[in-house]
Structure formats: C-alpha cells, structure tokens
Amino acid sequence: MRFTIAIDGPAAAGKGTISKAVAAHYGFAHLDTGLLYRAVGARTLDGTDPIAAAKGLTAEDLEADNLRTPEVAQAASKVAVIGEVRAALVDFQRAFARRAGGAVLDGRDIGTVICPNAEAKLFVTASAEVRAERRYLELVGKGTEIDRGTVLADVKERDARDMERAEAPLKPAADAVLIDTSDLAIADAIAAAVAAIDAVRPTE
Ligand code: CDP
Predict the structure, then answer these.
(1) Which residue, of 31, 91, 102, 124, is most buried by count of CB atoms within 10 Å of its CB?
(2) Does residue 119 sit within a domain?
(3) Residues in the chain with pLDDT < 50?
(4) CATH number for the domain including 56?
C-alpha cells in the first residue's frame, strides 16, 4: 500500500505534532523535511558550503544536537532559498514518500513540489502570534534563554523568506485542506487532520 500525506505550513504551525500523531494513527512512517534543511543550515554555521552540505548530507548530520535552535532555523531558511540545495534533497524525499506502508511528510513544499500527487494534502497554519507563543514555550521548556519578541521576529522573518523565494515558495497546494490551529487544542487539530485524511482514504 502506498499512500502519501503531505503536511505543509509556516514556521511553528504545529506541523510536527500533527504529523507525528497522524503517522502513529495510520501506522505510516514520518519524515520531518525541515530537519533536512536545518541539518544543511547547521553545517553552514561551521563554514561548509551549503550545496556541498546538501549533496553530502549524512545520517550523522541529522542527529546534531543543535538542530532545533533558533540560529539553525534561520540558517535553514537561508539555505532553503538555494535551488541546488533543494534539488539535492528531492530524491530522498520522493523515495520516502512512496515507500510501502504509507508516509507522512511535513514541510513547506511537499504538496506543491515534492509530492504534487500526494493522496492527502493539508496546510496547517495559525496566527503568527499564536505560533510564536507556542515556539517560545517549547524553547523555554528546553532551557533556551530567549524572549517572546525575538521568537516572534524569527517566525515572521522566516515566513517572509519562505513565502517570497523563487524556488518552491511556501504556499498551500490548490487542493490542500486548510487547518487553522489558532483556536484549536492539540487533540482537536489532530482530529481535524484525521477527518480530512479519512475523507480521501479508500476504506479497506
Ligand atoms: O519547525 P519549524 O516550522 O519552525 O521549521 P522547520 O519545518 O524545521 O523548517 C526550517 C526551515 O527549513 C524553514 O523555515 C524553511 O525555510 C525550510 N524548509 C523548506 O524550505 N522546505 C521544507 N520542505 C521544509 C523546511
């Protein structure tokens, strides 16, 4: 059985939480594609050329312990505008998407560029303020010293860069189901995602 679920949306919209829950619900594999860009971005912080880093990305790069930091998020969105970086990551993502047993991929361009034929597409969003507050609490929970204003500025800056780039800009696919999680509890956001996927999923 091959079934691809594409989940896109802006920074800190809750894609990761929803994707993990959806993958567990259906027993599918999950790929956080943001991690690929974060791993490339992290390599550039020590001076590595971004295209070389993307072409030679290793499993070890994906396990670096700084990938969730705001510095690496910014570096990720900067390398993500480079066409050759994106191109180097396409085959891995597409192969993952078509693996037997079903796959959930979350990112910015999964429903538009990586998997335009995905069986289910969601676009998860929330107001910038709500997203920044969630990311702030997540970072503080991990012991990061940061203030709310800095997190909001980071989220807005990355959104603008992600939406305005020429290559695979962040936007909903024409056939994506929009889920605004601004006023939704996590359980309700997950339920909305499952309902949207069940609506297009063949019953066994
Ligand atoms: O967790 P958060 O939503 O803050 O970010 P992420 O999904 O880990 O993505 C980090 C950055 O990678 C984004 O700001 C994008 O610039 C880039 N990205 C991308 O261009 N395409 C993807 N499919 C996934 C991430």
Answers:
(1) 124
(2) yes
(3) none
(4) 3.40.50.300
**78 in a domain, yes or no?**
yes
With the most atoms of ligand 1 within 8 angstroms of its CB, the residue from 155, 158, 170 to mutate is 158
Q: Give me the percent of the chain exceeding a pLDDT of 70.
A: 100
Q: How far is the CA of 82 from the centre of ligand 1 (A)?
A: 13
Q: Up-side HSE of residue 16: CA atoms within 13 Å toward CB?
A: 11
Counted domains in the chain: 1
Cβ contact 110:104 at 8 Å: no
The span from the CA of 33 to the CA of 41, in Å, is 13
The pair phi, psi for residue 82, each rounded to 5°, is -85, 120
Alpha helices in 27-105 (DSSP H): 34-45, 50-55, 70-79, 83-97
- For residue range 162-186, what is the model confidence (pLDDT) as tens digits? 999 999 999 999 999 999 999 999 9
| Ligand 1 nearest-atom number relative to CA 159 | 14
Atom of ligand 1 nearest to the CA of 161: 16
Residue with the smallest CA separation from ligand 1 atom 9 is 34
Mutational test site, ligand 1, from 7, 71, 77, max ligand atoms within 8 Å of CB: 77
Q: What pLDDT does 204 receive?
A: 61
Q: What pLDDT digit, counting tens, does each position of 183-197 carry?
A: 999 999 999 999 999
Domain with 90 in it? 4-198
Pocket, ligand 1, Cβ cutoff 6 A: 11-12, 33-34, 37-38, 73, 76-77, 80, 107-109, 158, 162
Is residue 203 in some structural domain? no
